[in-house]
Amino acid sequence: MNQRMSTERYNRICQLLKMRQPDLTVCMEEVTKPHNVSAVIRTCDAVGVHKVHAVWNESENLRKCTAMGSHVWVKTQLHKTMQDAVGCFKEQGMQVLVTHLDERASDFREVDYTKPTVVLLGQEKTGATADAIALADHSIIVPMVGMVQSLNVSVAAAIVMYEAQRQRQAAGMYEEQSLDEKECQEILFKGGFP
Amino acid sequence: MNQRMSTERYNRICQLLKMRQPDLTVCMEEVTKPHNVSAVIRTCDAVGVHKVHAVWNESENLRKCTAMGSHVWVKTQLHKTMQDAVGCFKEQGMQVLVTHLDERASDFREVDYTKPTVVLLGQEKTGATADAIALADHSIIVPMVGMVQSLNVSVAAAIVMYEAQRQRQAAGMYEEQSLDEKECQEILFKGGFP
Ligand SMILES: C[S@@+](CC[C@H](N)C(=O)[O-])C[C@H]1O[C@@H](n2cnc3c(N)ncnc32)[C@H](O)[C@@H]1O
Ligand SMILES: C[S@@+](CC[C@H](N)C(=O)[O-])C[C@H]1O[C@@H](n2cnc3c(N)ncnc32)[C@H](O)[C@@H]1O
Fold this sequence. Notes:
2 copies of one chain form a homodimer.
Chain A: H1 7-19, E1 24-29, H2 34-47, E2 51-55, H3 62-69, E3 75-79, H4 82-91, E4 95-99, E5 106-107, E6 117-121, H5 130-135, E7 138-141, H6 153-170, H7 181-189
Parallel strand pairs in A: 1-2, 1-6, 2-3, 4-6, 4-7, 5-7
The structure holds S-adenosylmethionine (2 copies).
């Protein structure tokens, strides 16, 4: 065991790594507010997402990158364009869902999240781009019966991710380790997360 | 029909009022950040909450009151103390649930939200007060399998409220008007909401 780590911490990280869901993730598309980025990442950690993705022009988004970087428990990967990002998801055999306020979108509860899945999240003001909508396999919507036009983006993300958590828990997916053993060992060797 | 309103708006409001759930609400306990208050209220509107509650020292919280007031589609009621607030909920026969990060708390999905229900939300840093915990009928928790200690408060609220929405939808509770007809007429007469 790594000497920099207490036994308690070591055990906690072991347990966490066993439940990680490497084939469940989100991709934020120019989400601009650090508090939203931060809330999304906390939710992702809580449902066992191992790595979150974002499409950002890095140089312009220092504060957001800081918001992402401060969450050492979840890895982050940036992409220059949505095309790059979706290419990378498809390579991994993921279904690509875009959260989108469109009447033709499916109810988010109708989707099977036990499949490898990425959920695309749109920008606070403008929502998902035409690119994201075109590249995604399906649009999903969280139903609303009030007057407001949309939910906060971190709220919408959480509602969808906890539906995924519910389905994956029911399917026993938190009971078998999915994360590559080599990666687990590396993380433990480094004393947790970077 | 009120002359200040278009037919479209009138119909939309009629439809909204029919789905309002007057016996489902939240109570924010000193939630401090306006963006969180705002996100909670948007979510409440989206699941059909008619009135949200807060325990606040009004004079000290002008910015938050503004965040609340700007959401004209959901009524708001302030209480001086949690005791006052819970007294008011109990009078209405509501079960009082407190969202609380305690191992003894029940999984939020184990609760029956078709009953009249209020969900107490704690402050961002300090969480639910001892008062709130003592006065509530049950503590509920959203399960987490990561390293972060808690979810963002508006995120936790949304996950719980959408479970309530799911149960109430399954029980047909959005298909029958629950809001008092007199109150509906008043709202329509006033041209919508204040
Ligand atoms: C504030 S919304 C964007 C609103 C924008 N005016 C639009 O029409 O798309 C920001 C993001 O939150 C997510 N979102 C918000 N409400 C949602 C809902 N009811 N269903 C699905 N996604 C939602 C989507 O990712 C959306 O792009
Ligand atoms: C950031 S948390 C407060 C953290 C505080 N350190 C504590 O221990 O309570 C703010 C509020 O969000 C809600 N909350 C956050 N995560 C939650 C979870 N996993 N289950 C239930 N409520 C949660 C609760 O209302 C909590 O009071």
